């Protein structure tokens, strides 16, 4: 039974113009659950409770109102494309290595299509690399099918189960101010990105090419290319993990640290080709389906191919913030004409409903909580913004 005093009826329930898409959401604070009627931007679906959204009477958010042709962004994209084409050409048949590039392969649509483009369109010798951190079965099906179809070599790195369990549990119990998705993603991502760098160094491979779509990762972390200083001279061990005293030196050694490498080390470049190429989410799904890199188009959906623990991370952020943490990213793609508004208008409320009620794919919330021995009360924000970020990113 729900405590009536702890569960309030929706506020902001006055009639709202049809210009404002709506969704009922919940916010929990001090043991109270409050329902609110969340308005969304009529153009990009950004919720009004996202900081800075500022939806006006016409139904537009501040980002849509401010949107105009950005000559600087267009010029940057042109430079990225020019650099990427020259870099891929120069990397072909790289001397001293049997591979021209490493591609981190998650089994999602973007990394699958990137494999095809690099091998078929550019003629590169590709080494696929997967960091196996609780990948879902559909992602493994996609990986096996694509690798067989494209005839590409594959390396799998599987971190110790005990370490991952301890790491994920600690992160979810000690989130930084931006919540669970940011905290876990930006500790986990450096883990596999660093492992990809180590692989490239070991095999003398000049390029790592990631399937990050526009908006991934956070712009301060990467726009087209990881800052070479980050790869050459920055310890990637999350500072708070060191300060916490909860992790041994051997466990922390899982994170990349170039300061331990010889001074004459030749480092690879780490690029995101989709930041340079024209990108359309729906077209990528169509392409991987047409090319037979997935069994059916539904297997290319980011909803079904992502890491199962993501459902728990989204559950935590919905609890703390009231909106899905991936919505700002997809809203940005909608604004830029790179994702379907209609798809996300329908999909987002369904996904949020599954997460909150732990049904359908949302059952992964309960599975991950059981795996990590967590209760809902354990999902806490306890640390300031940037607590896990390397010093170079903190300064930025």
Number of domains: 2
Indicate the CATH architecture of the largest domain.
3-Layer(aba) Sandwich
Structural class: alpha/beta
Fill in the CATH topology of the largest domain. Answer: Rossmann fold
Low-confidence blocks of residues: 1-18
Radius of gyration: 22 Å
Helix % is: 40-55%
Give the termini separation.
48 Å
Would you mind describing this structure in some detail?
There is one protein chain. The model is unreliable at 1-18 (pLDDT under 50). Helix content is 44%, strand content 11%. A five-stranded parallel sheet has the order 6-5-4-7-8, sandwiched between helices. Strands 1-3-2 form a three-stranded mixed sheet. The protein is an alpha/beta fold. It is globular, with a radius of gyration of 22 Å. Helix 3 (109-121) packs parallel to helix 4 (137-150), helix 3 crosses helix 10 and helix 12 (309-321) packs across helix 15 (363-372). It folds into two domains: 1-69, no CATH class; 76-291 and 388-395, HUPs (Rossmann fold), CATH 3.40.50.
């Amino acid at each position: 039974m729900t405590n009536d005093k702890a569960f309030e009826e929706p506020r902001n329930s006055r009639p709202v113009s049809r210009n404002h898409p709506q969704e009922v959401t919940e916010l929990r604070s001090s043991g109270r659950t409050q329902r609110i009627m969340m308005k969304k931007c009529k153009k990009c679906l950004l919720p009004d409770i996202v900081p800075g959204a500022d939806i006006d009477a016409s139904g537009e958010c501040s980002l849509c109102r401010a949107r105009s042709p950005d000559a600087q962004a267009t010029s940057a994209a042109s430079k990225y494309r020019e650099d990427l084409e020259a870099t891929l050409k120069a990397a072909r048949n790289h001397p001293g290595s049997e591979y021209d590039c490493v591609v981190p392969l998650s089994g999602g649509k973007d990394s699958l299509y990137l494999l095809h483009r690099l091998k078929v369109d550019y003629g590169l010798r590709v080494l696929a690399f997967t960091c196996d951190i609780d990948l879902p079965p559909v992602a493994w099906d996609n990986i096996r099918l694509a690798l067989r179809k494209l005839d590409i070599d594959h390396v799998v790195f599987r971190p110790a189960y005990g370490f991952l369990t301890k790491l994920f549990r600690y992160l979810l119990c000690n989130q930084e101010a931006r919540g669970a998705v940011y905290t876990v993603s930006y500790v986990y991502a450096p883990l596999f990105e660093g492992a990809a760098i180590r692989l490239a160094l070991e095999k003398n491979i000049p390029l790592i090419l990631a399937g990050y779509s526009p908006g991934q990762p956070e712009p301060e972390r990467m726009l087209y290319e990881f800052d070479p200083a980050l790869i050459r001279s920055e310890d990637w061990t999350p500072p708070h993990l060191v300060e916490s005293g909860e992790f041994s030196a051997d466990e922390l050694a899982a994170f990349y640290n170039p300061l331990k490498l010889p001074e004459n080390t030749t480092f690879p470049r780490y690029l995101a080709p989709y930041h340079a190429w024209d990108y359309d989410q729906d077209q990528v799904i169509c392409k991987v389906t047409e090319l037979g890199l997935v069994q059916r188009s539904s297997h290319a959906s980011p909803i079904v191919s992502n890491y199962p623990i993501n459902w728990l991370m989204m559950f935590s952020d919905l609890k703390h913030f009231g909106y899905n943490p991936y919505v700002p990213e997809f809203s940005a793609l909608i604004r830029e004409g790179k994702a379907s508004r209609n798809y996300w208008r329908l999909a987002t409320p369904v996904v949020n409903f599954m997460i909150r009620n732990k049904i359908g794919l949302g059952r992964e919330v309960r599975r991950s909580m059981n795996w990590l021995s967590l209760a809902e009360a354990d999902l806490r924000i306890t640390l300031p913004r940037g607590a896990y970020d390397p010093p170079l990113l903190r300064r930025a």
